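Technical note accompanying the year-one report. For the benefit of new consortium partners, we illustrate the data format agreed upon in the data management plan: each record pairs a sequence with a structure-token string. No post-processing was applied to the example shown here.
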Amino acid sequence: MKANERHSDKKTLSFGLALLPIVMMLGLLIVGYGVMGLRIEPLLLCSAAIAAGLAWWQGYSWDDVITSIVAKLAKAMPVIMILICVGGLISTWMFSGTIPYMVYWGLKLISPQYILIAAFFLTSVVSVCTGTSWGSAGTVGVALMGVAAGLDVPLAAAAGAVVSGAYFGDKISPLSDSTNFAAIVADTTLFEHIQHLMYTTIPSFILATIVYLVAGHSSMMGEVATPQRVTDIISALDGLYNFNIVLILPPIIVLWGAISKKPVIPLMLIACVLAIILGILLQGLSLKQGLDAFMDGFNISMFPQGTDGIIADVPRLLNRGGLFSMMSTILLVFCAFSFAGALTLTGALTIIINRLLTVIHSVGQLIAATIGTTILVTAATSDGKLALLVPAELYQDAYRRMGLDTKNLSRTIEDAGTVIEPLIPWTAAGVYMASTLGVSTLDFLPWAVQCYSAIFFALIYGFTGFGIAKAPVLATAPVESSEQGVAR
């Protein structure tokens, strides 16, 4: 009762005032980040200050604002810890040779006759194993573009296949920060989110595979040997590491844990420890180097032979990871949730949702509204994480009110945010992919089938009801049991 009384004496926002903090945030990000190139974290803090000022105008105290922000961050802490562990996992798998072993065999098995499908599959495997689309495209993707050039394959098609594969892993890998972030902001668990993503991701994957197979058997494909660049990468990896089949044990442990729903953080730490042991036993590296890699990231200079005679693509592939590598992502989470916490206290989202719900009358309309909002925020802010945060905060209660599980929301914002970002030319991801692969965004867009096709499946599911999860029904104790307990 006291809490209700405390909130009842606060000023109620009009629809215009409820929109104010969101409009101001978008304006700050479009002008500050998109036009002036300012850092995104202080812009988010400014947005949080605006929302906090609105809460103060309503009659809330500073303690109320802080309590709301802390409550938001408290819910996110388990997955923030997972994000930190992801950095250690990537670096220790580089240390052991686990990821290089997968890349090594992937490159060796490339057949010129199936270059597009090979590019798609190989970048998919690397991005799933590493959780990074940029790393996958910037290393193996670059090498595959060299293969495509040597085979006289249209570079737009090859680039589209590389981007599709790179973002396949970025979307579903438990190591991906965007995958973890989507689960956080939509208030669902990581593995429930990944499992639900399969409804749209697997059909998109199959469709992309068919397109690349058909294109690969057309007259546009050449018949020449693998270029020297790929051979050089294979030779460099073979010279640096002692490859052995046991190197696949760490990812097997993680996959087994994901399937059997074991606790994620202990599982990741076990995989890290195993990878360090494998690095010591198989690669001849030291325990100190393993712990340094775990904290600061792996570096090729840890090998006694160094980087002499190794082409630049190999260090770009290997030098990554570490717990500290995730700190910038964690800082963004803190700044974003400062805004979200203050905004939640004002009740602005409830007012906006109530207005939207007068227009949205079906699950299909809700899914379509989520998709449209996510793409709009992605294009307006050029930031993939904000494109996940804003619609998640905006529509979360709407999904609950319609009796839907929030994993529908996390899936939809990833379908319309994470994998659409590289297809918008002015976003950071779009610029990176175009400059790295040497093909303009609009040229490779039609070939990035995996990225955009999930939107169509999401809309179909929304209007048909297929693949839409209902909210779990909370179990209540039977009356008889309570009475028996009292009698005892």
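Partners are asked to follow this layout when depositing records. The chain has two domains: 15-62+328-428+448-464, 78-326.
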